[in-house]
């Protein structure tokens, strides 16, 4: 993002306080030391306004999360009402609250198959940690403690807690200064056909992915593998739409080897692909566990949910065993967050936002494909309201720009100045606007991004990094 140019003492003071004292997620120390942060002040719908009064169309949707749009008065009223009634009560052991109970039942009614049980946490990362703990507990309870290994995928993102980041497979998220759990966590290839071996058909690429997963299971030993973690569409890893049939075949392979299937729907659930959950509605599978967050409250308050099947619950809750589930958080089932989620779901249902998301998402897919005319755009890809532009130095060979250039940020910085927020991820620009986005706003996103790409090409021409053919 562009550096804020504080014009008043108060703005300057806030900017300085943030720069001096606030460690941001994924903070780039070298640039942040000079530039500081862009300070957002208020928001409405899909638009943010910074502390200087500049407006931005937020094509990122916060971080994949502002599904119903910002500034909703009825959301504010629901949260305020619950705070006045009861802001907090312990969720531990044998206490609950009405919003948590009602939300658990609502999610069970929306989830596919026999997924009828819910654990609440603080966000997507804790939802993944809860899933991991549940899996280990379940395997022990069924007398198979050796089934402790899990398999995930390269270029995946599953959260930022220790275990969640260990399960994730993005190389950029594994800098050498951090340690990760590696002994029982394994990775197989990303289902990214654009980066597949040259000459492979998509069907052949799919076969190779399934063969690789099968070989990995045999290498570890099926009796040792507890679960497979997969995002239906990897988000932060580059909005990778897997080859047709990928999820059905990985699911069947897991089932034939007594391996639990975990769908990480932290991004894809609650409408991003036009449905409550994408696993069954879009990809035709019914996983054993679904993790969710983000669109669950549309970003109004932190909340995550780990949903799991009757079959798992029947094992862990077997009568007469004297077991207890020693896992949870102070803010599990927080009544105010759960009240926000219930109101969020009510709004989605009442306004039929999924139908709108499917309609405007199809328009987004069509419009973004026009950017492929640019010589530095290797591919545009995505589904509905998850879209990505991948930039390349050579369109024919698909050679990437030097990572040090950070081409995605070069373009997003230009877009910032034009009033558009897109998310840069090295050689990518990723977008995930609210479900309420309009056709006109989609046009603004694509037209502004096109202008930004053109300006970036002008800046690069003659630098030796890239030049027009």
Q: How would you describe what is shown here?
A:
The protein has 469 residues and is α/β, with parallel strands linked by helices. It has helices spanning 9-21, 29-35, 61-64, 73-85, 98-110, 124-141, 162-167, 202-220, 246-256, 278-281, 310-316, 335-350, 353-368, 407-417, 439-460, and strands at residues 40-44, 47-50, 55-58, 115-121, 149-153, 185-188, 225-230, 260-264, 289-292, 304-309, 377-383, 386-391, 420-421, 423-425, 428-431. The strands form 3 sheets. A 7-stranded mixed sheet has the order 4-10-9-8-7-5-6, with helices on both faces. Strands 1-2-3-13 form a 4-stranded mixed sheet. A hairpin with a 2-residue loop joins strand 1 and strand 2 (47-50). It is globular, with a radius of gyration of 23 Å.
Topology:
Elements: H1 9-21, H2 29-35, E1 40-44, E2 47-50, E3 55-58, H3 61-64, H4 73-85, H5 98-110, E4 115-121, H6 124-141, E5 149-153, H7 162-167, E6 185-188, H8 202-220, E7 225-230, H9 246-256, E8 260-264, H10 278-281, E9 289-292, E10 304-309, H11 310-316, H12 335-350, H13 353-368, E11 377-383, E12 386-391, H14 407-417, E13 420-421, E14 423-425, E15 428-431, H15 439-460
Parallel strand pairs: 3-13, 5-6, 5-7, 7-8, 8-9
Antiparallel strand pairs: 1-2, 2-3, 4-10, 9-10, 11-12, 12-15, 14-15
Helix pairs in contact: 4-12, 5-12, 8-9, 13-15, 14-15
């Amino acid at each position: 993002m562009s550096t804020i140019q504080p014009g008043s003492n108060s703005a300057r003071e806030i900017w300085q306080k943030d720069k001096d004292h606030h460690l941001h997620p994924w903070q780039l120390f070298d640039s942040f030391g000079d530039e500081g942060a862009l300070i957002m002040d208020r928001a409405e719908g899909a638009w943010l306004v910074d502390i200087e009064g500049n407006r931005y169309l937020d094509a990122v949707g916060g971080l994949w999360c502002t599904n119903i749009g910002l500034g909703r008065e009825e959301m504010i009223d629901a949260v305020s009402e619950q705070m006045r009634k009861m802001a907090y009560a312990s969720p531990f052991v044998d206490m609950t609250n009405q919003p948590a109970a009602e939300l658990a039942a609502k999610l069970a009614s929306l989830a596919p198959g026999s997924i009828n049980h819910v654990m609440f946490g603080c966000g997507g990362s804790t939802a993944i940690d809860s899933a991991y703990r549940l899996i280990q507990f379940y395997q022990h309870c069924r007398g198979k403690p050796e089934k402790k290994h899990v398999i995930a995928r390269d270029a995946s993102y599953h959260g930022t807690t220790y275990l969640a980041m260990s399960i994730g497979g993005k190389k950029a998220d594994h800098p050498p200064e951090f340690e990760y759990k590696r002994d029982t966590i394994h990775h197989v290839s990303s289902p990214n056909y654009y980066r597949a071996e040259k000459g492979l058909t998509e069907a052949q690429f799919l076969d190779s992915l399934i063969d690789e997963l099968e070989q990995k299971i045999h290498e570890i030993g099926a009796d040792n593998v507890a679960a497979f973690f997969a995002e239906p569409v990897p988000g932060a890893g580059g909005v990778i739409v897997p080859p047709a049939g990928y999820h059905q075949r990985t699911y069947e392979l897991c089932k034939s080897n007594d391996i639990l299937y975990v769908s990480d729907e932290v991004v894809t659930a609650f409408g991003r692909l036009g449905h409550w959950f994408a696993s069954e509605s879009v990809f035709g599978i019914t996983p054993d566990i679904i993790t969710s967050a983000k669109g669950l409250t549309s970003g109004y308050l932190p909340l995550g949910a780990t949903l799991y099947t009757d079959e798992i619950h029947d094992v862990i809750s077997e009568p007469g065993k004297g077991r207890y589930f020693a896992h949870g958080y102070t803010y599990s089932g927080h009544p105010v967050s759960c009240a926000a989620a219930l109101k969020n779901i009510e709004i989605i249902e009442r306004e039929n936002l999924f139908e709108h998301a499917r309609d405007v998402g199809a328009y987004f897919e069509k419009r973004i494909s026009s950017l492929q005319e640019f010589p530095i755009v290797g591919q545009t890809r995505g589904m509905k309201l998850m879209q990505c532009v991948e930039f390349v130095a050579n369109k024919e060979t698909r050679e990437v720009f030097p990572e040090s250039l950070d081409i995605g940020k070069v373009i997003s910085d230009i877009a910032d100045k034009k009033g558009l927020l897109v998310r840069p991820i090295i050689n990518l620009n990723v977008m995930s606007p609210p479900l309420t986005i309009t056709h006109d706003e989609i046009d603004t996103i694509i037209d502004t991004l096109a202008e930004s790409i053109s300006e970036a090409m002008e800046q690069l021409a003659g630098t030796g990094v890239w030049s027009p053919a």
